User: Fold Carbohydrate ABC transporter membrane protein 1 (CUT1 family) from Ruegeria conchae.
Amino acid sequence: MRHKTFLWFFLPTGLAMLLFIAMPIVSIVTQSIFAPHPAVLLEVESCTPLIGCTTETTIDQEATAALREAQPLGRFVGLGIYFDRGHLAIQEISQMWASNETWDGFFSELGNLPFYRAMAFTLTFTFIVTPLTILLGLVIALAVNSLHRHLKGLMIFFSLLPMIVTPLIGSLILFWMIDSRGVIGNALVYMAGDPNFSLKASTGLMWVALMVYGVWSSAPFAFVVFYAGLQTLPQDQIEAAQIDGATRWQQVKFVVVPHLMPLVTFVALIQLMDNFKVLEPIIGFSAGAHAQSLSTFILNDMSGETRQLSSAAATSVMTIIGVAILLSPVLVRTWRDFKGAR
Assistant:
């Protein structure tokens, strides 16, 4: 392709990436290093014959408005927001390290910090849901691919239902099912033999429920990708493996999986990005008391009457850095495979 032709071909995509990816990233990075101006306080002394003189503190609205108009971005704080107690909490961690003699005590106190509590759930959710989603999607794809052609269409339809349902609606449906009056919740109460048993009252069980929903809602995507990849599998390789006496498991391990590895990499990239920004299940399950992710951390900062935009921007930047770190091993391996194939 000629350079001029390629330029016109790439221009719309390049402009879209500039407007919707590059500029928002620059914006949040800029917002994260500025903090809002505090209100300008004014002390007014009032004297009365009976009470005497008293000093009252009021907000100077005109001076505050003028200061914010002169510096709309706020006051420059550099990396101060990143290191405060609401985020990396460098000073607090140093004090914890000095005051604790055991790892258990240190990590127990570390879990009380909001950012690290959200990071713990986000990483746990990501590293458990992603491999389980890939595995379940592959198993479903292999099972459907082995069915009779008259049954494949029906099974594909049912397998795609979780992906068709809106994430928030899907999480609400499962939330109602695990309620003590729901199908799953009622069954658990019966098996536990305790009428007061509630899955929603346990932090550990709530984490499990969120991860089960994550796998359930994401597995159809992996299934579609792997099923499409199975349609391109050369049959002569399967036939050669069968002639050599390979079992079904050996055919999958040594023929099917190597053929699908590029697709496994693709699904892993997408799932890592999606799972790291988990939000809808926590809202749908009303699990804010048990689980906080980086996305809910950002949402809480941007909600309410006192919106902390600088704090939300700092968390967003660290979320982008976290996604980049998670994706880097997969991208490096993909690049090496690409160079080795040339």
